[in-house]
Amino acid sequence: MKQTSTLFYSLLNVVALLLFGFALLPLLILSFYNHPSAVDDYCFADTAVHYGVWQAQKLYYDGWSGRYFSNLIVHSSPLVWRWYGAYRFLPALFALAWIGALYTMISELVPTVSARMRWVAVGLLFFLYVLMLPSPVEGFFWLAAVACYTVPTILSFYLIAVILRWYTIQKQPLKALTAIWAAFLVFAIVGSSETSLVWMILFLGGLLAYQLLFQRRIDVFLLGLLLMAFFSGWLLFRAPGNAIRMGGNPNGGDLLFSTRSAFEYLAKEMVGWFVKTPVLILGVLWLPLAQRLANSSHPTRRLFTIHPLLALIAWIGLLGALIFPSYYGIGVGPAPRVMNVVYTFFLLGWFYNLTVLVVFSNRWNGLGSGWGAIPLALIAGIAAVWVAYSVYKSVPLHQIYGDLVSGRAAAYDREMTDRQKVLNDPTLTTVRLPVLRAMPPSIFIGDIHPSDMKHWWNRCQAGYYGKKVVILDSLTAKKP
């Protein structure tokens, strides 16, 4: 029996790592076909080139958005330093940073688990993430979206690890320096987007509220981080540009409408995530690992000792709250880049809640105990079929692999490289660019306006390259 169980989980480890590679490898390859986007990337770069990074920050803070940290990233992007080729490596770096930060967080959460099992957990989570990622292009390839949503997600994983590590440090000044570093991470996360602000305040506030209500104590370290989150939120919301941005939709600022709409939207999405991904069956396979944590005496076990109902309410509440700013801020549903973040915390919350349930009940004896070889084979079969079906139906994976296999990504790379040569021609003041024939959805978000030469995206690209006008000219498009 034990030998059967061991063989089963050894096979599971291999499969998990294969799925990990299946999700990661195409993203790394696609990265080398990536180019800056005409949508916003050139506007940020043009502003910073002409006015300087600091003045560009001020212009956007006063005129459009208070997202001071994500604005800093885009206003100091490689385009600002004329390093066009860096965009071929940035998506790969962001994907690897996402994975690395997740591994760091899991290592701090479950330090008693072997490194191999941590990588299995990371691999399965990353596979599930890519499997239903609402928008791959906004998750890794379009810098304007990555700065606002993917970067703070990466920093959030890392922040949780830093917070846990702070409690294990005994010596000064390392403990004080770690606290300062954690406070800076909070500052950066909140300053990336309103979604990140909501997550950070609810996360830190929830931890403090739990300590106060159930443990009758206040953690000064967490209190300091929460105060930093409120200060950072004040900086974000006091920006004059936010009022301009929120004033464009009559439903913006409607509390009841926004709350109802957020949770209705969440309910619909969660049904799809449970049905279209194998999180349910993989949750069953997660239970023995959770049991190992339940039987552990390591201090991190206390992180999973809250009541399952409270954990469930906190999870659902957090997911709805992450969607809420989209409705409250601009009166419409969340953009795919927002749902990238919501889906991330859906996955993490699902496995966290399963662990809490196991630790709370402490009755689970493992898949290999008392079930026999038939249930293990049955579970393996169901998991294989479910995973295969999910891969077959996955829109993101179809996009990613379709763009590679069909040659769309390579064709897009060639066309954009040709455009770059034209834009860099010093003899041209009026530039006519051919309409792109290849528009791979996994790495392409949009182009300059086809008819309005005064459109922002046209003007920004013209200004960046020192041209009078940049026009899309369908007559110059390459014929098939």
Structure description:
It comes from Larkinella knui. The protein is mainly alpha-helical and 480 residues long. The protein folds into two domains: 347 residues, no CATH class; 67 residues, no CATH class. The protein contains 20 helices and two strands. A two-stranded parallel ribbon has the order 1-2. Strand 1, helix 20 and strand 2 form a beta-alpha-beta unit. Helix 1 crosses helix 6, helix 2 crosses helix 3 and helix 14 crosses helix 16. The longest helix has 30 residues.
Task: Kindly summarize this structure in a few lines.
The protein is an all-alpha fold and 480 residues long. The protein is built from 20 helices and two strands.
Offer a few descriptive terms.
transmembrane; two-stranded parallel sheet; 480 residues; mainly alpha; 2 domains
Number of beta strands:
2
Question: How are the strands of the biggest sheet laid out side by side?
Answer: 1-2
Largest sheet: 2 strands, parallel
- Provide the residue-averaged pLDDT: 89
Q: How large is the count of helical segments?
A: 20
Q: How large a portion of the residues is in β-strands, by DSSP E?
A: under 5%
Number of structurally distinct domains: 2
- Rg, nearest Å: 24 Å
pLDDT under 50 segments (min length 5)?
A: 366-373, 476-480
Q: Structural class from helices and strands?
A: mainly alpha
Distance between the termini: 62 Å
Order of helices and strands: HHHHHHHHHHHHHHHHHHHEHE
Shape: globular
Residues in helices, as a percent range: over 70%
Keywords: Membrane, Transmembrane, Transmembrane helix
Protein name: Glycosyltransferase RgtA/B/C/D-like domain-containing protein
Pfam families: DUF6056
